[in-house]
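Marked as duplicate of an earlier ticket. Keeping the data here for the record.
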Amino acid sequence: MSHKQRNTKKRSTADGQTFGYGIRSIAYLGVLTAAAALLSYIETLIPLPFGIPGMKLGLTNLAIVLVLYLFGMKEALLVSVVRILIVGFLFGNLFSILFSLAGGLCSLLVMWLMKKSKLFGIAGVSVTGGVSHNLAQMAVASLVVGNSSIWYYFPILMTAGMLTGFLIGVLSMEMMKPLKFMKKE
């Protein structure tokens, strides 16, 4: 079998494998990407009474945590980046994409490291994701604005990240049980 034939076979075979993923896995990842985008949009519709710019509930993290635990880091990265780009181009601008990429990628990296360390359960991993997301967005905001005084409200964002991260983590744990059938093939 030539190298070209082997590569072609690996990409798409008669048994339903595409790029090493079964058709079901690809469909589930598509559904979870759509859910992440929808949750991101819904989050913009929920007004928070705190008056702090950029403060959100972190609902999108629910889909990302599920992908991280059901599929893995590579798939969670793909879903996260695709979601950020879709939502950014539909409802935001280049700055919102920049802020979302900073927060989302930092959060995902930290959650993946915490998951790998096995020091935390799903809720603890989600909490670290919520806090690191806010930390990364504050760092980008500080650079964009050129003023470090905005860090005065990081303690509030950290507390919010911990609280919402915990709630999203608990919800993720509960959703993992009925969604185990999605686990990567």
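See parent ticket for discussion. Residues 154-179 form the longest helix (26 residues).
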